[in-house]
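Re: Re: token formats

Sure, here are both.
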Amino acid sequence: MQDLIPYREQFLDRLLVQDLQGGIAVIDAAIQAGFPPKTILLKVVSPAMDHIGTMQANREITLSEVFVVARISDAAIDRLVRVLDSRSGQTLEDATAQAVIVGSAEGDYHSLGRKIVCSFLRMGRFRVIDLGASVSAQRFVDATMAEQAPVICVSALLLHTAERVKEIRALLHERSLEDQIKLVVGGAVFNIDRELYRLVGADATAVNAPGAVTVVRSLIRGGS
């Protein structure tokens, strides 16, 4: 089996020129070459989106371009999910799957990292409820109760938005849900300060999307 590096480079190239059909063609070629969908997500889509995220942070790409890139990435991920479903005989939208609530902290409008985490959770057979960007503490907790989800995952890029996680913790305490619902955080600011998650009241943090799946599974099983 050949290496995935050429596919990664080709997919990134298609993202940079905002070529939806070309991006999907690269993913299809990797699938036809025999690579597993999860491996393609991890080694092709995720690194390419990380590169786009760096460009966005450095203001080397406009918001409108990021929007188009995100659409291409979503389409690629949907293609991989469908292939995984067809091979496993299961669906990622199974109503019996464990629900996980995901969203960006209030005031945080960055979405690329969150979308990648959602994709890995879906491939990990979780039923993902993505609340989107700039989500209030009340929306997080209300959605968690409505979906009977045992875990909330919060993404934050900067310190001032990471601080909003404290509001989620306070609301969980107010509603006597601290023992029932676990709080996981992630994002650049938590990778810089590895103890910050404790200071904002989270139960755990993950350095990347695959790590988020591991952490969520551990918390659901009663780990810490």
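Second one below.
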Amino acid sequence: MATQEEGRFTLKALRRDGPPKKFTLELSLGGLVTLGVAVIIGLVWVFIFGIIVGRGYRPEQAVPEIAKIMPDSGRAPIAAEPPKVLQPEDLNFHEALRRDPPVLPSETAPMERAPERQAARDAPIAIAPVPQTQAQDAPAVKAPQSQWVYQAASFKDKAQAESLLRKIMAQGVATSLEKAPVNGVTWYRVLVTIKGTEQDNEAALAELSKIGLPKPLLRKRNAL
């Protein structure tokens, strides 16, 4: 049983065979605060220590004092590798490079392959002959031939028709005159006849265009 009176704590312990025994503990306000802070720090330290041990961290390697209070886990300490000391012969590689400079493959490879390239250039080039039988046996393909008949113009006056006929014939194009009665009236038609390929037909039409007949009327076309 505990009682408090003005910063004084009194503890009473009951005994079966005698009067109760009293224990008195006096703490001031500052002492009470100090005790509380010490308890909190102790709890925090225990919590952090538990996390470190639970994660497998070995704090005894960094802090030797902790190794004295921790049990031995049976692991052998990791031996540090002794530093390697350079030997005198390891320091002479500069002189070895000066005596025996390394040979780069790019400097000798072109010289070794030069005879092979020269031999390839000097070798004659074989040209396969073209078989003449194929060229001789292949028949020449002829362009299709046709005959076109155009009506260049139509006149009531025969003299005008004959004048145009002579003008067209002067261009080297075959021309004829056709007499046709229409509704009791006689018409004289100037007809142009072209024989040959499509290229011949286009060339003759170009000649007609030069004398003012760019689009004559096509009357008929027959294949020859």
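The longest strand covers residues 185-196. The longest helix spans residues 29-54.
- S.
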